[in-house]
Amino acid sequence: MKLCLIIQTLILSAILAAGCDHSKPQNEQTPASMAIISQDPIETPDTTSTPVVLSGFPMPLTSGNRIFFTYEGDLTGWTVDRPPNASVRTGLQVYRTDTHGVNWNSNQLPIEQAWEAEVDQDHILASLHQNGSSWLLLQSEPKGDITQKTLYLSEDGGTTWTFNSDLTSSISGFVNSMMVQEDGIRFGTVRSDFIKEKGSDTVYYETIDNGSSWHLFNTASILRFHGNPAALDIIKRFADHWLAQDEQKVRELFVEGASESWIEPMKKHKYTFIGAYPPTNEDKQAPFCVGLRYQIDVKDDSVGTMAICVRKQQSSNEWRVYMFD
After folding, report:
1. Mean pLDDT confidence for 200-213
2. Which CB contacts under 8 angstroms, 24+ apart, belong to 33-37?
3. What is the reported pTM?
4. For the CA atoms of 153, 159, 162, 168, what is the dihedral angle to 10 degrees?
Protein backbone atom coordinates (compact mmCIF):
# COMPACT_ATOMS: atom_id res chain seq x y z
CA MET A 1 0.00 0.00 0.00
CA LYS A 2 2.79 2.40 0.91
CA LEU A 3 4.69 1.39 -2.21
CA CYS A 4 1.65 2.15 -4.34
CA LEU A 5 1.23 5.57 -2.70
CA ILE A 6 4.91 6.38 -3.30
CA ILE A 7 4.64 5.44 -6.97
CA GLN A 8 1.49 7.57 -7.40
CA THR A 9 3.23 10.54 -5.77
CA LEU A 10 6.21 10.25 -8.08
CA ILE A 11 3.97 10.05 -11.16
CA LEU A 12 1.97 13.13 -10.02
CA SER A 13 5.17 15.08 -9.41
CA ALA A 14 6.45 14.25 -12.89
CA ILE A 15 3.16 15.39 -14.46
CA LEU A 16 3.23 18.71 -12.56
CA ALA A 17 6.84 19.31 -13.50
CA ALA A 18 6.06 18.70 -17.16
CA GLY A 19 3.13 21.12 -17.07
CA CYS A 20 5.32 23.91 -15.65
CA ASP A 21 8.03 23.63 -18.37
CA HIS A 22 7.97 26.89 -20.45
CA SER A 23 10.76 25.87 -22.75
CA LYS A 24 10.07 25.60 -26.49
CA PRO A 25 11.27 23.06 -28.98
CA GLN A 26 14.42 24.17 -30.76
CA ASN A 27 12.63 24.45 -34.10
CA GLU A 28 9.94 26.81 -32.71
CA GLN A 29 10.82 30.56 -32.78
CA THR A 30 9.06 33.57 -31.40
CA PRO A 31 7.58 35.69 -34.22
CA ALA A 32 9.67 38.80 -34.85
CA SER A 33 6.83 41.16 -34.06
CA MET A 34 6.15 39.46 -30.77
CA ALA A 35 9.85 39.46 -29.90
CA ILE A 36 10.13 43.20 -30.49
CA ILE A 37 7.09 43.96 -28.40
CA SER A 38 7.96 41.60 -25.54
CA GLN A 39 11.63 42.47 -25.21
CA ASP A 40 12.84 45.47 -23.26
CA PRO A 41 14.71 48.03 -25.37
CA ILE A 42 18.40 47.25 -25.62
CA GLU A 43 20.67 50.27 -25.96
CA THR A 44 23.93 49.71 -27.76
CA PRO A 45 26.58 52.43 -27.70
CA ASP A 46 26.92 54.39 -30.97
CA THR A 47 30.53 53.86 -31.89
CA THR A 48 30.30 55.47 -35.35
CA SER A 49 28.47 58.68 -36.29
CA THR A 50 26.69 58.76 -39.63
CA PRO A 51 26.96 62.23 -41.19
CA VAL A 52 24.17 63.81 -43.19
CA VAL A 53 25.12 63.67 -46.86
CA LEU A 54 24.15 66.20 -49.54
CA SER A 55 24.85 65.08 -53.11
CA GLY A 56 27.93 63.20 -52.01
CA PHE A 57 29.15 65.90 -49.62
CA PRO A 58 29.59 64.65 -46.03
CA MET A 59 28.10 67.40 -43.85
CA PRO A 60 29.81 68.73 -40.71
CA LEU A 61 28.54 67.13 -37.49
CA THR A 62 27.25 69.91 -35.24
CA SER A 63 24.76 70.34 -32.44
CA GLY A 64 22.96 73.13 -34.30
CA ASN A 65 19.95 73.17 -36.58
CA ARG A 66 21.00 73.22 -40.24
CA ILE A 67 19.04 75.94 -42.04
CA PHE A 68 20.94 76.18 -45.33
CA PHE A 69 23.27 74.07 -47.46
CA THR A 70 24.63 74.22 -50.98
CA TYR A 71 27.70 73.27 -52.96
CA GLU A 72 29.69 74.75 -55.83
CA GLY A 73 31.83 72.53 -58.00
CA ASP A 74 33.31 69.24 -56.84
CA LEU A 75 35.13 70.44 -53.73
CA THR A 76 33.43 73.49 -52.24
CA GLY A 77 30.34 73.28 -50.05
CA TRP A 78 28.58 75.63 -47.62
CA THR A 79 26.20 75.17 -44.70
CA VAL A 80 24.61 77.57 -42.22
CA ASP A 81 23.62 76.34 -38.75
CA ARG A 82 21.54 77.92 -36.02
CA PRO A 83 23.22 76.94 -32.72
CA PRO A 84 21.20 75.68 -29.74
CA ASN A 85 19.73 78.64 -27.83
CA ALA A 86 20.87 80.97 -30.61
CA SER A 87 21.02 84.66 -29.75
CA VAL A 88 22.64 87.88 -30.84
CA ARG A 89 25.62 86.84 -28.73
CA THR A 90 26.09 83.44 -30.38
CA GLY A 91 25.17 84.49 -33.91
CA LEU A 92 24.77 81.89 -36.65
CA GLN A 93 27.52 79.56 -37.83
CA VAL A 94 28.68 79.44 -41.45
CA TYR A 95 30.68 76.38 -42.54
CA ARG A 96 32.76 76.02 -45.70
CA THR A 97 34.69 73.10 -47.12
CA ASP A 98 37.10 73.06 -50.05
CA THR A 99 37.99 69.39 -49.59
CA HIS A 100 34.67 67.75 -50.51
CA GLY A 101 33.60 67.62 -46.87
CA VAL A 102 36.81 66.16 -45.42
CA ASN A 103 37.47 69.36 -43.47
CA TRP A 104 35.10 72.19 -42.62
CA ASN A 105 35.95 75.70 -41.41
CA SER A 106 33.43 77.44 -39.15
CA ASN A 107 32.94 81.20 -38.84
CA GLN A 108 30.36 83.28 -37.04
CA LEU A 109 27.69 85.33 -38.75
CA PRO A 110 27.42 88.27 -36.31
CA ILE A 111 23.67 88.94 -36.25
CA GLU A 112 22.43 92.15 -34.65
CA GLN A 113 18.70 91.65 -34.00
CA ALA A 114 16.85 89.09 -31.90
CA TRP A 115 14.58 87.90 -34.73
CA GLU A 116 17.63 86.88 -36.78
CA ALA A 117 18.42 84.17 -34.22
CA GLU A 118 15.09 82.50 -35.08
CA VAL A 119 15.39 82.24 -38.87
CA ASP A 120 14.75 78.84 -40.43
CA GLN A 121 15.33 77.34 -43.85
CA ASP A 122 12.41 79.31 -45.31
CA HIS A 123 13.85 82.66 -44.25
CA ILE A 124 17.43 82.58 -45.51
CA LEU A 125 18.81 83.22 -49.00
CA ALA A 126 22.41 83.10 -50.14
CA SER A 127 24.66 83.94 -53.04
CA LEU A 128 27.91 82.14 -52.20
CA HIS A 129 30.99 82.03 -54.39
CA GLN A 130 34.29 80.16 -54.26
CA ASN A 131 36.16 83.38 -55.01
CA GLY A 132 35.23 86.99 -54.40
CA SER A 133 32.30 88.23 -52.38
CA SER A 134 29.43 86.21 -50.90
CA TRP A 135 26.11 87.31 -49.43
CA LEU A 136 23.56 86.01 -46.92
CA LEU A 137 20.07 87.50 -46.64
CA LEU A 138 17.95 86.89 -43.52
CA GLN A 139 14.21 87.59 -43.30
CA SER A 140 11.70 87.67 -40.49
CA GLU A 141 8.18 86.34 -40.41
CA PRO A 142 5.88 88.97 -41.96
CA LYS A 143 4.10 91.21 -39.48
CA GLY A 144 1.30 92.96 -41.28
CA ASP A 145 2.85 94.33 -44.46
CA ILE A 146 6.39 94.38 -43.06
CA THR A 147 9.07 91.73 -43.51
CA GLN A 148 12.39 92.62 -41.94
CA LYS A 149 15.46 91.90 -44.06
CA THR A 150 19.18 92.12 -43.30
CA LEU A 151 22.05 91.48 -45.71
CA TYR A 152 25.49 90.22 -44.67
CA LEU A 153 28.65 90.26 -46.76
CA SER A 154 31.93 88.36 -46.82
CA GLU A 155 34.75 89.52 -49.06
CA ASP A 156 37.29 86.89 -48.02
CA GLY A 157 35.67 83.61 -48.93
CA GLY A 158 33.48 83.35 -45.85
CA THR A 159 36.19 83.80 -43.22
CA THR A 160 34.78 87.13 -42.03
CA TRP A 161 31.15 88.22 -42.23
CA THR A 162 29.94 91.79 -41.69
CA PHE A 163 26.58 93.50 -41.65
CA ASN A 164 26.00 95.10 -45.06
CA SER A 165 22.59 96.76 -44.96
CA ASP A 166 19.04 96.66 -43.64
CA LEU A 167 16.75 96.16 -46.64
CA THR A 168 13.43 96.34 -44.80
CA SER A 169 12.47 99.75 -46.16
CA SER A 170 14.19 99.56 -49.54
CA ILE A 171 12.75 96.20 -50.69
CA SER A 172 9.03 95.57 -50.30
CA GLY A 173 7.46 92.19 -49.71
CA PHE A 174 9.08 88.82 -49.09
CA VAL A 175 12.23 88.05 -51.08
CA ASN A 176 12.03 84.65 -52.76
CA SER A 177 15.28 84.55 -54.72
CA MET A 178 18.64 86.30 -54.83
CA MET A 179 21.44 86.33 -57.40
CA VAL A 180 24.53 88.45 -56.84
CA GLN A 181 27.48 88.27 -59.17
CA GLU A 182 30.68 90.22 -59.56
CA ASP A 183 31.54 91.94 -62.81
CA GLY A 184 33.66 94.80 -61.53
CA ILE A 185 30.65 96.78 -60.33
CA ARG A 186 29.19 94.03 -58.13
CA PHE A 187 25.63 93.86 -59.35
CA GLY A 188 22.81 91.57 -58.37
CA THR A 189 19.07 91.09 -58.46
CA VAL A 190 16.49 89.88 -55.97
CA ARG A 191 12.92 88.82 -56.53
CA SER A 192 10.34 90.12 -54.09
CA ASP A 193 6.73 88.96 -53.84
CA PHE A 194 4.14 90.95 -51.95
CA ILE A 195 0.41 90.88 -51.38
CA LYS A 196 -1.73 93.62 -52.88
CA GLU A 197 -5.33 94.41 -52.09
CA LYS A 198 -6.54 92.00 -54.78
CA GLY A 199 -3.99 89.27 -55.24
CA SER A 200 -0.21 89.33 -55.31
CA ASP A 201 2.53 90.95 -57.33
CA THR A 202 6.20 90.29 -58.06
CA VAL A 203 8.90 92.90 -58.54
CA TYR A 204 12.65 92.71 -59.09
CA TYR A 205 15.27 94.88 -57.47
CA GLU A 206 18.91 95.27 -58.41
CA THR A 207 22.07 96.53 -56.79
CA ILE A 208 25.22 97.91 -58.40
CA ASP A 209 27.09 98.80 -55.20
CA ASN A 210 27.65 95.43 -53.55
CA GLY A 211 24.21 95.32 -51.96
CA SER A 212 24.34 98.59 -50.04
CA SER A 213 21.39 100.02 -51.98
CA TRP A 214 18.70 98.51 -54.20
CA HIS A 215 16.34 99.87 -56.85
CA LEU A 216 13.82 98.42 -59.28
CA PHE A 217 15.46 96.74 -62.25
CA ASN A 218 15.23 98.47 -65.63
CA THR A 219 16.96 98.18 -68.99
CA ALA A 220 19.14 101.23 -68.27
CA SER A 221 21.24 98.87 -66.18
CA ILE A 222 22.61 97.40 -69.41
CA LEU A 223 24.46 100.66 -70.08
CA ARG A 224 26.42 100.28 -66.82
CA PHE A 225 28.24 97.18 -68.04
CA HIS A 226 31.83 97.31 -69.27
CA GLY A 227 32.01 97.20 -73.05
CA ASN A 228 31.53 99.23 -76.19
CA PRO A 229 28.92 101.93 -75.39
CA ALA A 230 27.39 101.76 -78.87
CA ALA A 231 27.00 97.98 -78.64
CA LEU A 232 25.41 98.21 -75.20
CA ASP A 233 23.05 100.91 -76.46
CA ILE A 234 21.85 98.62 -79.28
CA ILE A 235 21.14 95.86 -76.77
CA LYS A 236 19.22 98.27 -74.51
CA ARG A 237 17.16 99.56 -77.45
CA PHE A 238 16.46 96.03 -78.56
CA ALA A 239 15.25 95.13 -75.05
CA ASP A 240 13.01 98.21 -74.88
CA HIS A 241 11.42 97.47 -78.27
CA TRP A 242 10.97 93.83 -77.29
CA LEU A 243 9.13 94.83 -74.13
CA ALA A 244 6.91 97.17 -76.15
CA GLN A 245 6.28 94.35 -78.68
CA ASP A 246 7.24 96.76 -81.46
CA GLU A 247 7.92 94.32 -84.26
CA GLN A 248 9.12 96.87 -86.81
CA LYS A 249 11.73 98.46 -84.53
CA VAL A 250 12.95 95.06 -83.39
CA ARG A 251 13.47 94.02 -87.02
CA GLU A 252 15.49 97.16 -87.72
CA LEU A 253 18.10 96.09 -85.16
CA PHE A 254 18.65 92.63 -86.62
CA VAL A 255 21.27 91.86 -89.24
CA GLU A 256 19.96 91.28 -92.73
CA GLY A 257 18.42 87.89 -93.29
CA ALA A 258 17.38 87.36 -89.66
CA SER A 259 15.06 84.42 -89.16
CA GLU A 260 11.37 85.16 -88.81
CA SER A 261 11.25 82.63 -85.98
CA TRP A 262 13.39 84.93 -83.82
CA ILE A 263 10.54 87.30 -83.13
CA GLU A 264 7.73 84.75 -82.83
CA PRO A 265 8.02 84.56 -79.00
CA MET A 266 7.57 88.34 -78.74
CA LYS A 267 4.31 88.12 -80.67
CA LYS A 268 2.92 85.38 -78.44
CA HIS A 269 3.92 86.56 -74.96
CA LYS A 270 4.36 89.66 -72.86
CA TYR A 271 7.88 89.76 -71.39
CA THR A 272 9.25 91.26 -68.19
CA PHE A 273 13.01 91.65 -67.85
CA ILE A 274 14.18 91.02 -64.30
CA GLY A 275 17.96 91.08 -64.48
CA ALA A 276 20.99 91.02 -66.73
CA TYR A 277 24.30 89.20 -67.07
CA PRO A 278 27.37 91.20 -68.13
CA PRO A 279 28.85 90.91 -71.64
CA THR A 280 30.82 87.78 -72.44
CA ASN A 281 33.45 89.78 -74.27
CA GLU A 282 34.49 93.37 -73.61
CA ASP A 283 36.65 93.78 -76.72
CA LYS A 284 35.45 96.87 -78.54
CA GLN A 285 35.60 95.17 -81.95
CA ALA A 286 34.72 91.58 -81.08
CA PRO A 287 31.11 90.35 -80.93
CA PHE A 288 29.76 89.99 -77.45
CA CYS A 289 26.53 88.92 -75.78
CA VAL A 290 24.41 90.13 -72.88
CA GLY A 291 22.04 87.77 -71.10
CA LEU A 292 18.69 89.15 -69.99
CA ARG A 293 16.74 87.23 -67.38
CA TYR A 294 13.02 87.33 -68.05
CA GLN A 295 9.57 86.11 -67.13
CA ILE A 296 6.65 85.80 -69.50
CA ASP A 297 2.90 85.98 -69.00
CA VAL A 298 2.58 82.28 -68.30
CA LYS A 299 1.41 81.24 -64.85
CA ASP A 300 4.10 78.60 -64.28
CA ASP A 301 6.35 81.24 -62.71
CA SER A 302 9.27 80.16 -64.91
CA VAL A 303 12.36 82.30 -65.38
CA GLY A 304 14.47 82.17 -68.53
CA THR A 305 17.54 83.85 -70.01
CA MET A 306 17.60 85.57 -73.39
CA ALA A 307 21.05 85.87 -74.98
CA ILE A 308 21.40 88.91 -77.25
CA CYS A 309 24.61 88.93 -79.29
CA VAL A 310 25.73 91.90 -81.37
CA ARG A 311 28.62 92.64 -83.73
CA LYS A 312 29.77 95.57 -85.83
CA GLN A 313 28.74 95.47 -89.49
CA GLN A 314 31.56 96.02 -91.98
CA SER A 315 29.30 97.73 -94.49
CA SER A 316 27.80 100.31 -92.15
CA ASN A 317 30.16 100.22 -89.16
CA GLU A 318 27.04 99.93 -86.97
CA TRP A 319 26.27 97.32 -84.34
CA ARG A 320 23.44 94.91 -85.04
CA VAL A 321 21.92 91.86 -83.37
CA TYR A 322 23.29 88.83 -85.23
CA MET A 323 22.37 86.01 -82.83
CA PHE A 324 19.43 85.62 -80.52
CA ASP A 325 18.67 82.69 -78.27
Report:
1. 74
2. none
3. 0.64
4. 40
